[in-house]
Write a structure and sequence with these properties.
The complex is a heterodimer. Chain A starts with a helix and ends with a helix. In chain A, strands 1, 2, 3, 4, 5, 6, 7, 8, 9 and 10 form a ten-stranded mixed sheet that branches. Chain A has a two-stranded antiparallel ribbon with strand order 11-12. Chain A folds into two domains: about 190 residues, no CATH class; about 170 residues, no CATH class. Chain A is built from twelve helices and twelve strands. Chain A is about 50% helix and about 20% strand. In chain A, helix 2 runs antiparallel to helix 8 and helix 10 packs antiparallel against helix 11. Chain B is an alpha+beta fold. Chain B has a six-stranded mixed β-barrel, surrounded by four helices. In chain B, strands 3-12-1-13 form a four-stranded antiparallel sheet, with helices on both faces. Chain B has a two-stranded antiparallel sheet with strand order 2-11. In chain B, about 45% of the residues are buried. The chains are: A alpha+beta, B alpha+beta.
């Protein structure tokens, strides 16, 4: 039976070029579904990656208790001092804690694509910030200097918001800030932000105190000791979180929404493509009725006929799936977009078309192909041999 | 018109094929209807809250920065402004952070005066709210969601505002309820919880005398833009410069922050229609090819080339219009589901007229190539099977 199946499938596939028109309906229909599915899922994956996957397990974010996000939080200088004495923090040669006191504000900066104002984070960072975030590298220009109104721009922000180029001036709250450079930080959330010296930001926005503290632990295992010493201190009321946990909480809702929307649209499109596949395979079977009947007459079984039709549909679907996934990868992999994140500020992220995502797309394609091929295959297998031979 | 039965009969010449083609057109127009509605919703915020006579004044630097309460007197003095109210973002939830509550400290008289017509509220309950300093007046949907009753004392957790004792937890007595007058706004208002600005300002440990933003109503909407400029001129070069804009623009700018949703939706629709065009176009071609002898017979009977062209285009038109009607009707049926997902946007079946326009265009693009082939048919060749 396997030999029969192999012979039939080979014959079907060899005659495909003669049925170029109806075969391409399956290929293009499925390619459309897979391209849309992969692109939309790449969006949610990219967003999640930027927020959740790039933090370090040995880095901690400390907020005022019950504040949820840095923008709402408030810590005094005295509280920062207490935090910097907690056990578990990494320290430099002089014993100073690797802890950056930060002030997070949101500024209106117009987006390039829509032209309307968007909430861009202006983050004031403490002098220990370079040691807390060693991954941060300037790719253009130089770092800001403290005490003068200078700031640096993340490369994501530079791509999405208007006027953020090295050397240009950004007017924020009656003051001109010079952009001295553009930085990268490995694709994480900070690439969506503007960074400046914390006290310079504080004086510009007339705010005493800070939003948060970001610290580097001496090892990821020190988290419990650090966490407990702060949360058990009666003079403090703070929430202590590992950095990845803090940002993952902000990506959850949106990533879920994008996934639901993407899957719904793809399911509806898949149904449409399946009708297309059914149509094409039925007409392929009808066109070859005489041929199939002849094969049955000379001893080919019903099952090999059924399977060979399904194999043809599967092969076409696979081709469509690969085409759609490749198209999505070529057009959208690395494409940069921005949206409003859970912390009420813009998050710039890149669409990520990963191998796993490509595999998902191709799996969808095969499912559509199998479903679209089954009923026509059934008809082919059940074809009454005598009647079919007599027709035409 | 008299050829309709003929077109109808040829359409059903191969039932399964027509049904499958029809279903994929239905699917495409279902997506078209849903995505166009969502696109429209994101570019047209709900109407009556954001009526043309409403302005919003925020801190120019960012809405997350407050404005001095003292600005109120100056704004009130701008000619053409009939009412000003002030509101602050409270950032609240009930018990757990997923239970978001749109809680706002307001000034009762100016707020309800400015938004008159926006709410259905019992005057007695409004009076009770006025007289209870720790009172709150809550949207009926929110009451239902958490099982609250009038008379309950409920705790809200603010993620921003600490009380003087350092606590982020505030308690309010629910003294009344309201609901949205315009059903289109019901979802937008569904988690609104209003309480007194005086209580809030006295209770908070920092930021006293600040407000989040001002809302104004102007007597003549035609002057709204000029009045907005006048308001901003009052505070130019002050530490807290303002940005005043029509309430609709404010909401629109906020929705635009989510991203270029229109572009994404159009890209998806582009893929859907390209696929559909290919699929249906192929089916029509195939169907005409099979019928060449029949078409030749029609021509022999005296049908002109133009009439044969009309028959084939008519078939394509019938298929597309039936498919579009079913698809758009289905998308209309999904509106209630969409409404739950999209808060603060106005949903209405806007896609119907452009939807049919697209269907007719599609019918011509798909139907014309095979129709032209049918028109140019040479009777002798076609009857001889050489078409």
């Amino acid at each position: 039976m396997l030999r029969q199946l192999a012979a039939l499938t080979l014959m079907n596939l060899q005659t495909l070029p003669q049925r170029r028109g109806s075969s391409s309906v399956i290929v293009i229909g499925i390619a459309g579904v897979v391209a849309v599915l992969v692109s939309v899922l790449a969006m949610s994956l990219g967003f999640h990656h930027t927020l959740a996957d790039t933090g370090r397990a040995d880095r901690v974010v400390i907020l005022r208790g019950g504040s949820d996000v840095e923008l709402n939080s408030n810590l005094t200088r005295a509280e920062i001092d207490t935090i910097s004495n907690a056990p578990g923090l990494a320290r430099d040669a002089s014993g100073a804690a690797k802890l950056s006191n930060e002030l997070v504000t949101v500024a209106n900066v117009p987006k390039i694509d829509t032209g309307s104002d968007a909430n861009v984070t202006l983050r004031g960072v403490g002098i220990k910030s370079p040691e807390v975030r060693p991954e941060l590298q300037m790719i253009e220009g130089r770092m800001f200097r403290p005490a003068v109104r200078e700031l640096v721009v993340g490369q994501g922000a530079a791509r999405q918001f208007r006027g953020l180029t090295t050397g240009s001036v950004l007017r924020l709250r009656n003051a001109d800030w010079t952009i001295t450079g553009i930085f990268t930080s490995g694709g994480d959330i900070h690439e969506s932000e503007l960074l400046a010296d914390v006290d310079t930001v504080g004086s510009a926005v007339e705010r005493n105190g800070y939003s948060s503290a970001v610290g580097l632990l001496d090892s990821p295992a020190s988290f419990a000791a650090f966490h407990d010493s702060l949360t058990q201190d009666p003079s403090l009321k703070v929430d202590v979180q590992r950095e990845p946990d803090y940002y993952a909480a902000q990506s959850k809702d949106l990533a879920k929404t994008i996934n639901i929307v993407g899957n719904t649209v793809a399911v509806i499109m898949a149904i449409g493509a399946m009708f297309g596949a059914l149509n094409s395979m039925y007409s392929a079977v009808a066109a070859r009725a005489l041929e199939i009947a002849t094969l049955r007459a000379i001893g080919f079984g019903a099952l090999p006929v059924l399977l060979s039709v399904m194999a043809e549909s599967l092969a076409l679907a696979l081709l469509g799936g690969i085409l759609g996934a490749t198209l999505a990868w070529l057009v959208f992999n690395g494409h940069s977009v921005a949206t409003l994140g859970g912390a009420f500020a813009q998050v710039v992220f890149q669409l990520r078309v990963t191998p796993a995502l490509l595999a998902t797309g191709i799996a969808w394609a095969c499912t559509i192909g199998l479903l679209g091929g089954f009923f026509p295959a059934l008809r082919a297998a059940r074809l009454p041999v005598a009647t079919a031979l007599r027709a035409n | 018109m008299k050829f309709l039965p003929l077109v109808w009969a040829t359409l059903w010449r191969r039932k399964t094929r027509t049904i499958f083609t029809l279903l994929s057109i239905v699917v495409a127009f279902l997506l078209y209807g849903v995505l166009e509605t969502v696109d429209y919703a994101f570019s047209h915020p709900a109407n009556s809250v954001t009526g043309a006579d409403k302005l919003i004044t925020t801190n120019k630097y960012s809405i997350t920065f407050s404005l001095p309460f003292a600005d109120l007197q100056q704004i009130r003095g701008v000619p053409g402004i009939t009412e000003v109210t002030w509101i602050t973002w409270f950032g609240a939830y009930y018990q757990e952070s997923k239970n978001f509550v749109f809680a706002l400290p307001i000034d009762t008289d100016s707020y309800f005066n400015l938004h008159q017509g926006g709410f259905i509220v019992d005057p007695a309950e409004l009076e009770a709210f006025r007289n209870n300093r720790s009172g709150a007046i809550v949207n009926v949907d929110l009451m239902k969601k958490f099982g609250w009753k009038v008379g309950d004392r409920v705790p809200l957790h603010s993620t921003i505002w600490t009380q003087r004792n350092g606590s982020l937890d505030w308690s309010f007595d629910i003294v009344g309820t309201f609901s949205a007058k315009d059903p289109a706004e019901a979802t937008q208002q569904s988690s609104t919880f209003l309480f007194h600005y005086e209580t809030f300002d006295e209770g908070r440990s920092f930021g006293k005398g600040d407000v989040g933003w001002f809302e104004e109503r102007v007597a003549n909407p035609a002057q709204a833009a000029a009045i907005a400029r006048q308001v901003d001129a009052l505070f130019a070069n002050s530490p807290n410069e303002t940005k005043t804009q029509p309430a609709a623009d404010f909401t629109l700018a906020f929705l635009k922050q989510l991203g270029d949703i229109g572009f994404i939706l159009r890209a998806i629709l582009g893929a859907v229609f390209f696929t559909l065009l290919f699929l249906t176009g192929h089916t029509m071609m195939q169907s005409v090819r099979e019928r060449i002898p029949e078409l030749a017979v029609l021509k022999t009977l005296g049908f002109s080339g133009g009439q044969v062209l009309g028959l084939v285009v008519g078939e394509s038109l019938l298929l597309c219009v039936i498919g579009a009607s079913l698809g758009l009707a289905l998308s209309f049926a999904t509106l209630p589901i969409l409404k739950q997902g999209l808060q603060g946007v106005d949903l209405s079946p806007r896609a119907i007229v452009p939807g049919f326009a697209v269907a007719i265009l599609l019918a011509f693009v798909i139907g014309l190539p095979p129709a032209l082939r049918a028109m140019r048919l040479n009777i002798v060749d076609a009857l001889a099977g050489r078409g």
